[in-house]
Design a protein that fits this description.
- By secondary structure, the protein is mostly helical.
- The chain has 11 helices and no strands.
- α5 crosses α6.
- The radius of gyration is 29 Å and the shape is elongated.
Length: 252
């Protein structure tokens, strides 16, 4: 076996398989839930990954992996993307001076990194990801790895919705669409989980209520006549025409 095959092939297969597995799971869940397969928010996936929109669409459609992009070119492309999309509160791009001060390096170093004249190096790469508040690896993951990571929260949300559906808990198409086209996967995803978790809690409570109702119905009529007024009283539902002493003749 060629030594270079041992070093390169397993990694390439692993990267391809990760995206294929995640995308296959998402597509299966969409089909199971009866949702249209074109509900992905491409702009949001672009924002989360730094991958051009046309490339995201190709990968979602099952395009085979391209030849690995030169890491230096990939880092530069995503750095330019981050500076354009993660801006100051006033909407302006961060200046090279601002970035240099925050990272503790010279303006010349920042300029050279952003103009692809030099590699940032591992430590500067990590600090740049922190500066722009993106996940670790944003600048260095391959496109396939980055898209697979961006799809995982969607898979998690859809899996949860499918679980609720299988348990007979109601859900709506708006919730499903939001799971695919969330404005902020990290924050909104938690809200979706909380909302669906509350739905599951309500389902469990309804089941307990049904069990209680069935238990009361199974009681002898004499026992029911004693218990039901007590339950109404506890719930504040005692009828105005009901005489609490009406059951006294049944009491021992």
């Amino acid at each position: 076996m060629n030594p270079s095959d041992e070093a390169v092939t397993p990694e390439g297969i692993g990267v391809a398989d990760e995206l294929e597995v995640v995308l296959s799971s998402v597509n299966d869940l969409i089909k199971e839930l009866g949702y249209a397969p074109d509900g992905f928010n491409i702009d949001r996936l672009v924002y989360r990954t730094g991958i051009p929109a046309d490339q995201v669409e190709q990968l979602l459609n099952g395009a085979p992996a391209d030849e690995p992009e030169n890491l230096h070119s990939s880092v530069h492309r995503r750095l330019v993307f981050l500076r354009d999309t993660r801006r100051r509160p006033d909407g302006a791009e961060y200046s090279y001076d601002e970035i240099a001060v925050r990272l503790g390096i010279s303006r010349a170093q920042v300029y050279n990194v952003f103009t692809a004249k030099r590699n940032p190096g591992l430590q500067v790469t990590v600090e740049l990801e922190k500066f722009f508040r993106v996940e670790a690896g944003f600048l260095t993951l391959t496109d396939r790895q980055a898209l697979a990571r961006a799809l995982k929260p969607i898979r998690e949300q859809l899996t949860y919705v499918a679980m609720l559906k299988n348990r007979g808990v109601g859900y709506n198409q708006l919730a499903l669409r939001s799971a695919l086209a969330t404005e902020d996967d990290a924050a909104w995803g938690k809200e979706l989980m909380a909302a669906l978790g509350a739905a599951m809690d309500r389902s469990e409570q309804e089941q307990e209520l049904q069990e209680l109702t069935d238990s009361v119905r199974a009681l002898p009529s004499r026992s029911r006549r004693r218990i039901i007024p007590l339950m109404r009283g506890m719930l504040g539902l005692t009828r105005a025409d009901e005489d609490p002493a009406s059951d006294s003749k049944d009491r021992p």
